[in-house]
Design brief:
Helix content: 55-70%
Structural class: alpha+beta
Order of helices and strands: HHHHHHEEHHEEEEEE
CATH topology of the largest domain: Helix Hairpins
CATH class of the largest domain: Mainly Alpha
Mean pLDDT: 76
Low-confidence stretches: 1-36, 104-108
Oligomer: single chain
Number of strands: 8
Number of domains: 2
Number of helices: 8
Length: about 325
């Protein structure tokens, strides 16, 4: 009957509309990207993650360099301490002989033991000899001190050697990981249709800043425009971000570590209003990117794998802070 058919048809139509509306408003599956942007977005995310890993590698390399420098100093100290210990042992042995000659009641076996004992045994035996003068006690104290210093230095050398081997293993593993990530990044660049642009035939001229340290750093940065990004690179053919800034300031006589976070700790903090050409601009909360400010709101930096050294607006990414080397 009409009175029953119409409501049923209406109910069915309403149910169909409800299903279509639900499907239309349902969220897209996780990881889905707008058509035509998936490759670009994946490329940008992968490039940023790769830069984080590269800066971690740079930090490990700085740590290894520090360990090697400490080991070299310690190696020289070990040689000096060993020579000093030999001198003090000879002096103590002569003291033992004098003590025996001055106190003939000592058994011959005791003297023989004194002259052939190890350092600890020699000290214990000498301390048992009575009527030692103040000067003689100083000789024993110097021998004991030299022995302790040499033992501590040898322990430190063993610790540094272990630390250095661990750092070298970490560097090798990190390098392998970076190379894998770069191959993945290259595949994403191909998918996105991105090609590394050719270096410009003529680079922009740097501003006239005089002959100070900052001016030298800025002129150096301008001269690198168009050079390729090279992870771990500090020139002359390619750079990563912290490699470029450290190389720029090295030409001005200022040594900076090859790592963005370490550079942040090394520079004088300044405000945005205080920034001048030559100052460094640091990016992201964990400070894994850095560029050199060149004036008029621009930096020169090595952006990421696949993009050459270039000029960029300061605000191209979240700024963490500003710093002045020197």
């Amino acid at each position: 009957m009409p009175t029953t058919v119409v409501p049923r048809r209406t109910a069915a139509f309403a149910a169909g509309v409800s299903v279509m509306l639900a499907l239309a408003s349902a969220p897209e599956p996780a990881g889905a990207e707008p058509p035509g942007k998936t490759a670009e977005q994946q490329l940008a995310a992968a490039a940023e993650q790769l830069e984080i890993v590269i800066e971690q590698y740079n930090d490990l390399r700085e740590q290894l360099g520090e360990t090697q420098a400490r080991a070299a100093v310690l190696d020289r100290e070990l040689g000096t301490l060993a020579e000093e210990l030999a001198v003090h042992r000879t002096e103590a042995a002569r003291l033992a002989a004098q003590a025996y000659r001055g106190h003939g009641g000592q058994p011959l076996a005791a003297v023989s033991a004194l002259l052939t004992a190890t350092t600890n045994d020699l000290l214990n035996s000498l301390l048992m000899l009575d009527r030692l003068s103040r000067d003689q006690r100083r000789v024993i104290a110097r021998l004991a001190d030299a022995h302790d210093q040499l033992a501590a230095a040898r322990d430190a050398a063993r610790t540094l050697d272990t630390q250095q081997r661990a750092q070298e293993r970490q560097l090798a593993a990190r390098k392998q990981h970076i190379e894998q990530e770069i191959r993945q990044l290259d595949r994403l660049r191909d998918a996105a249709g991105e090609r590394e642009p050719a270096a410009p035939r003529t680079a922009p001229s740097p501003p006239d800043l005089g002959n100070g340290a900052a001016a030298k750093a800025v002129r150096f940065a301008y001269a690198q425009l168009g050079k390729r990004y090279q992870w771990g690179g500090e020139g002359p053919d390619g750079y990563d971000c912290s490699g470029l800034t450290s190389a720029a300031w090295r030409t001005a006589g200022v040594k900076l570590p090859h790592n963005a976070a370490r550079q942040w700790r090394a520079v004088k903090r300044i405000s945005r209003a205080e920034r001048q050409p030559g100052d460094l601009v640091f990016y992201y909360a964990d400070i894994h990117h850095v560029g050199i400010y060149v004036g008029d709101g621009y930096i020169i930096h090595a952006p990421r794998a696949g993009k050459p050294v270039q000029l960029e607006r300061v605000e191209f990414q979240p700024v963490h802070g500003f710093g002045r080397p020197g």
